[in-house]
Amino acid sequence: MKQEPVGLFEKYFIIWFRIVTERIWTGDKKFRNTTIAILLFGILNVFLLTGSVKDFFRLGEAAVYDIPSTLYGLNDKGEYEPIAEYYKFSRIPVKLEQLKPEETNYSTDNRHKVIQCFLSTEDNSFYSHNGIDLKGIARAFVVNLMAGRVKEGASTITQQVARLKFLSIERSIARKAREAWLAILLELEYPKDKILEVYLNEIPLGHGTIGVGAASRFYFRKEVQDVSWGEAAILASLTTRPTQFSPIVNPVSSMNKVRVVFRKLVENGRMTVADAEKEYAALEEYYTNLNRSPNDSAFSDRLNRFPYVTEYIRKNLIRSIGSSRLYNGGLKIYSTIQIRHQEEAEKALLPALQRQTIESNQRAFRNIDAFDDLYGSGYSLIADLYDLPEFKFKISKIERTFSSAYQEDIRDEFYALNLLTGDDFLGDTLDKNYSTQNTKDHLLPVEGSLIAIRPETGYITALVGGSGFRSDNQQIRPFQAFRQPGSAFKPILYAAAMDHSGKNPDPEKNVTPATLFADSPLQYLMEDGDEWAPENYSSEYSGFILLRKALEQSKNSVAVRVLEQVGLSNLMESLRGLLQLQGRDIPYNFSVSLGSFELTPYELTRAYAALASGGKTVNPISVLYVEDNSGKVIKDFRKDYEGVERKQIISKEAAFLITSMMKDVVEEGTGRGVLSYGLNRKAYGKTGTTNNFRDAWFVGYTPELVTSVWFGYDVGTISLGRGMTGGKLSAPVWGRFMARALEKEPAKEFPWLADVKITKRTVCRMSGKLPSGQCHDLLEEYFIPQTVPKDVCNDHGSAWNVVESKPQSPVSPKPVETKKQDTKAEKKPTESKPPKRKKSVFSGDEEIDY
Which of 27, 389, 415, 748 sits at a 20 to 30 Å CA gap from 493? Predict the structure, then answer.
């Protein structure tokens, strides 16, 4: 409801009135002065009730409409295509020139049928009066007096425009006076055609539609210039009480009101009786085939191809440009969303979530009376001791029992009986009840997330926030679901460890893909006396294993030992830089190595994007720029994005190593499921599964795109079911999406590879050291030059080689380098040294809270 502001003139009227009154009574001619004052005050009072000086400056607003804003995404041709609209009321502005004259004239007036219908019902003398129709006022007065009620209005179209644009719907003499005053000013300011155009675009016509353009599209699924006489009559019948006369809500009342419109057309000479009857009869098919819910609205009918994307961008834009401008400013919002990517993301994830809901078969807790039955008496005692509130349910047990029985048994029978009886009210009630039911048979829905980001630009190209965007499911989980990443965190940890080793080489603590770690049970005694014993997923151990193989097989014990060897304090800066957590920090304990702290899918994907960018941070962006209705850029997010520095968190060499290790995860390890859909390019990624199968992850990338997929319940303590791992659930969805989304994009290499300084060496697959003459199982491995192993393998020969013998000079392998390096040190014969006693595995981590 519009509220008029109080002007400065009105504020000081009382002070001015007091001063004038004093002057009137101080003179000699008090009677004459009093008479003149009464007349002047009467005229002034009428002006204050009806007009204001500010009205002259507000007239320009009459021709300005609140227009919905449009969100655009990129199609396969690189062109922007509308994907969503933002508005509270639907309006499609129509120019009067678009409503072409009728070729077949029923009368001398050949204007478009919509114009003729509205003129006949609302203001037949619109083109002959000056804003106020005195004859119409007199006629309405007599008609209403004889009827004993308000049966006919006297407002002209110009008066209605004044009310719609500037006034409230309050019924009062003051408002009617203001309406008449503003109508006169509008007639002085605008030509008749412009006033009529404003009226046709501002009149509310029900179900959230404003104007004939939006109403025509909502009621008839066609443009207003293409409607028939009967459809134009329906639009004209909705001006007074749109809900009561809606053809969708009350078809019978609507047909009766349309008959009145045709009668008006006949009375005003715009149509003959025979033609009116013919056009009215043609409407029978429309009403017969009308099969829409009375609750339909233009809001639910709006363009919204990807609801999760629409909602995410809406929330961000409200913070930056405001809700009023977003809903009413006619803005054009250009996003980074790629339509193909978004379509394939929804095709890949949503059906998988529905299948997994049935597979996991977790039912909502229904025996809510159990607590009262088992512990009700005990609770009353505890409540008396600790002054607790009374334990009670919002609804009775009888109501809950009936509701459950109705939903599972009775409702389907009611629905079948209603097909025979055809009762509209009962049918609508049942339809609404079905549509608002959260999940079938009380199954808890398995939720999920998919988000895709371009590693070089940070553009978010696809976003799915759950199992389906509904009134009860609007959480955008890529940004709002805080879950443990599990083993999906290991690549971040290993990348930071290898980066630290490259910058601080230490032969005893270097972490490389060929570093040998013990895969064996671990047990720690915590400060509080509890024990922590991290286990592998399979509870099986492989003895000594190279780090590359440990990542491929997702060995938990090795992840903990990597953290022990390097020291969490040495890695914390790199981990913080990769994760870029806002307002939170990484827990300072060893369980970090197993992904025990919570991250959102967005944060984890952004960290992987940094790895795919050669160790540089990535600043994701979803909207590029926003234009107003005239095409002027009002907000350019690209400038904000370009102003944020991309920091080099880890070296390109460390990013290269972890990328090559994740390639093995996809081709030979836990992530083989991504190959199920024929991905025709190299892929790199890692699975993740948390305790008791509560979360299933796959996060990975190609040079073109970084994507994460997460499965889980919103209640973080509920299991997806035994064996529901990231490799089984998330990896196939990731592979399907990447294969389809990148199908039309050429494969390319990482642009930062040319600057990588990596050395390739042949090592013993058993020990990770340079091979001796007795090593037969060899492996080509990559190293940061400073971390190339110098020890020669002596693990072959006698059983355990307790006594070390001086090794022979190894065959010097050819280094494979992207740039020339100083190899003088390699010419010297390599000497093995007796192993030194290692320092405490907790050295440097004294402040860690175990």
Answer: 748
Contact indicator for 649, 610 with CB cutoff of 8 Å: yes
Residue 761 lies inside a defined structural domain of this protein: yes
The whole-angstrom separation of Cα 764 and Cα 810 is: 12
Contacts of 113 (CB under 8 A, 6+ apart): 102, 227, 228, 229, 232
pLDDT level of residue 161 (50, 70, 90 thresholds): confident
Do residues 462 and 341 make contact, with C-beta atoms less than 8 angstroms apart?
Answer: yes
Tell me how far apart the alpha carbons of residues 264 and 268 are, in angstroms, rounded to a whole number. Answer: 6
pTM of the model: 0.77
Dist. CA 318–CA 295, nearest whole Å: 27
Greatest CA span in the chain, whole angstroms?
136
Strands across the sheet containing 684-689: 460-464, 447-453, 706-712, 695-701, 684-689
- Alpha carbon distance 824, 805 (integer Å): 26
Tell me which amino acid residue 827 is.
Answer: K
The CATH number of the domain holding residue 746 is: 3.40.710.10
- Helical (H) or strand (E) element with 246: none
Write the pLDDT tens digit of every residue in 803-847. Answer: 333 333 333 333 334 433 343 333 333 444 444 433 333 333 333
Positive or negative, the Cα torsion across 266, 267, 268, 272? positive
The residue range of the domain holding 53 is 8-61
* Whether residues 453 and 415 fall in one domain: no
Number of H helices, E strands in the chain: 31, 19
Q: Is residue 352 part of a domain?
A: no
Q: HSE-up of 104 (CA within 13 Å, CB side)? A: 5
Backbone angles phi, psi at 27, to 5 degrees: -85, 180
Tell me, what's the pLDDT at 590?
Answer: 87
Q: How do 543-546 and 531-532 pair as beta strands?
A: unpaired
Region for residue 540 given its phi and psi (left: phi exceeds 0; alpha: psi -120 to 50; beta: otherwise): beta
Q: In the structure encoding, which two tokens stand for residue 648, read together?
A: 């080099």
pLDDT of amino acid 262 = 94
Judge if 504 and 409 occupy the same domain.
no
| Strands 69-74, 332-338: pairing kind | parallel
Closest CA to 484 of 604, 603, 595, 602: 595
Helix (H, G, I), strand (E, B) or coil at 773: coil
**Kind and range of the H or E run holding 455:** none
Using alpha carbons only, give the angle 755, 500, 777 rounded to the nearest 5 degrees: 80
Question: What is the structure's pLDDT at 66?
Answer: 85
> Residue ranges of the alpha helices (H) in 25-95?
30-50, 55-58
Q: Quick one: pLDDT at residue 375?
A: 64
Find out whether 614 and 647 touch, Cβ atoms under 8 Å: no
Tokens 């429309």 belong to: 286
Q: Are 493 and 421 in a shared domain? A: no
Residue 606 has pLDDT above 90, yes or no: yes
Is residue 842 a part of any domain in this protein? no
pLDDT band per the 50, 70, 90 thresholds, residue 370: low
Helix (H, G, I), strand (E, B) or coil at 370: helix
146/443 Cα distance (integer angstroms): 63
Q: Quick check: helix, strand or coil at residue 324?
A: helix
DSSP class of residue 406 equals: I
Query: In 227-306, which ranges are continuous DSSP H helix?
Result: 229-236, 251-267, 273-281, 284-288
Both tokens of 350, joined, read 């949503």
